[in-house]
UniProtKB/TrEMBL annotation:
It comes from the Bacteria. It is found in: Cell membrane. The keyword Membrane applies. Gene3D superfamilies: MFS general substrate transporter like domains. It holds the Pfam family MFS_1. Keywords: Cell membrane, Membrane, Transmembrane, Transmembrane helix, Transport. GO terms for molecular function: transmembrane transporter activity. The chain crosses the membrane at residues 12-35, 41-61, 73-91, 103-127, 139-157, 163-182, 215-232, 266-285, 297-312, 318-336, 357-380, 386-404. Residues 1-405 form the Major facilitator superfamily (MFS) profile domain. GO terms for cellular component: plasma membrane. This is MFS transporter. It is a multi-pass membrane protein.
Length: 420
């Protein structure tokens, strides 16, 4: 079934896989790098700046993708990324080392991601159909999780002692990704014929002003970050709670293996279970979803996802926590591809780049709500947080349903207007 997808989709999954292996091998550990070479406060500020720059670049990249086309922007972004990794390699060589030059290269990599990602997301919608999107997003989701897992493994093994060698391999992979993008992906959107002045800030704000007036999309976005806020609780309130409340204990298996679990190790184990389940069962879930009612599956996924996190908000029983992770992972497998497929149906086809860039707000606001959960959770406790998680699920269902209903009315109105 994978071979039946458009060649651009297959190639983008390959290049995205390689890019995320590269990114996951380096960026999760860069705070450690800057802490070691400068100091912890500056390290935190630099990482925040890099994230902010990538987000702003993503907004402009989405705008450009609707003007100059998808492939040109993707090729430019991949070339910039390969050059930045080569620069990072040079300024972390055995002969010369500069953390500030490294940070500059990180900013360029962030900008390149902002150029590539919205264009690539729009391109996937360009060449897919309603019948193939859920499967396409399921496969893409599998590739994302597998690549992040591999990247974290490579980075964990080699970052500290073999940073230069790791960067050399990653630079070569980035060059290969650029070649694949330039030679194997075809253009799917010719872009708008526009004067040079229309590349400025005024048309940028006008483009996103139109997106912000699209109430079905805005409602769907609100529903999205209501659900995604749950995922970011794992590394905020839930991780802190488990670290404080789980009493370290040694477990024995057949008198052969001894394993000591504390809160942090338990959370790590639960995260591994979540990732492995996604890697192993994405294909099965995609086949089951095909041909079924995507809305109902998405709502069921929301409920299972929220229920799992609600249990994790208060329980200290290992078996119950493991069951909660299984439940939330099933929910994740159900809602992620169906939500992305339904999102593709409600956005304006002439501004897909801008819409997909704005969709990035779901992750940014989700992260903010995740951090807020750490503050609120310490005040109200785990049981009340569990109730809050379930309330977020209700919000996610309400606004997603509202968005889809508004989208249907908008579509009917447009069709009747065209008919007249």
């Amino acid at each position: 079934m994978f071979k039946s997808l458009h060649p651009n989709i297959r190639m983008r999954i390959y290049t995205s896989f390689l890019s995320r292996v590269v990114g996951s091998s380096v960026f999760p550990f860069m705070a450690i790098y800057f802490t070691k070479h400068i100091n912890p406060t500056v390290a935190g500020i630099l990482v925040l700046i890099q994230v902010a720059i990538q987000f702003v670049a993503g907004l402009y990249g989405g705008f450009l993708a609707d003007i100059i086309g998808r492939k040109k922007l993707m090729v430019a972004g991949e070339l910039m990324k390969a050059g930045a990794f080569a620069g990072m390699l040079l300024v972390n060589s055995p002969w010369f080392e500069s953390p500030w030059a490294t940070f500059l290269m990180m900013l360029l990599i962030g900008v390149s991601g902002g150029l590539v990602n919205p264009a690539a997301e729009a391109m996937l919608i360009d060449v897919s159909t309603k019948e193939t999107r859920a499967f396409m997003y399921s496969v893409n989701y599998w590739a994302v999780n597998m690549s992040i897992m591999l990247g974290l493994m490579f980075g964990g093994w080699f970052f500290e002692d073999y940073f230069f060698e790791l960067l050399a391999v990653l630079t070569a992979m980035s060059v290969f990704t650029f070649w694949l993008t330039a030679s194997r992906i075809t253009e799917t959107y010719k872009g708008k014929k526009t004067a040079r002045k229309e590349y400025g800030l005024k048309p940028l704000f006008q483009s996103y002003g139109l997106v912000m007036k699209d109430w079905p999309f805005i409602a769907f976005t609100i529903g999205g970050f209501s659900i995604l806020a749950l995922e970011f609780q794992r590394n905020n309130f839930i991780s802190v709670r488990l670290e404080k409340e789980i009493v370290p204990e040694t477990y024995h298996a057949f008198h052969l293996i001894s394993l000591q679990l504390d809160g942090i190790k338990l959370l790590s184990m639960l995260t591994v279970v979540n990732t492995l389940m996604i890697v192993l069962f994405t294909s099965l879930a995609a086949k089951w979803i095909k041909g079924r009612n995507e809305r109902k599956i998405m709502y069921a996924g929301f409920v299972l996802f929220g229920t799992g996190y609600a249990i994790m908000a208060f329980s200290n029983q290992i078996i119950l926590l493991l069951l909660a992770v299984i439940v939330l992972t099933i929910g994740e497998l159900l809602y992620v591809p169906t939500r992305q497929s339904l999102l593709a149906d409600i956005i304006d086809g002439s501004q897909r780049g801008a819409y997909m860039a704005m969709n990035g707000l779901v992750f940014q606001i989700g992260k903010m709500l995740g951090a807020l959960g750490l503050i609120v959770g310490n005040i109200i406790g785990g049981l009340n947080m569990a109730g809050g998680y379930l309330f977020l699920v209700l919000l996610g269902i309400f606004f997603s349903n509202l968005a889809l209903r508004l989208g249907e009315r908008k579509s009917i109105h447009i069709q009747s207007a065209v008919g007249k």
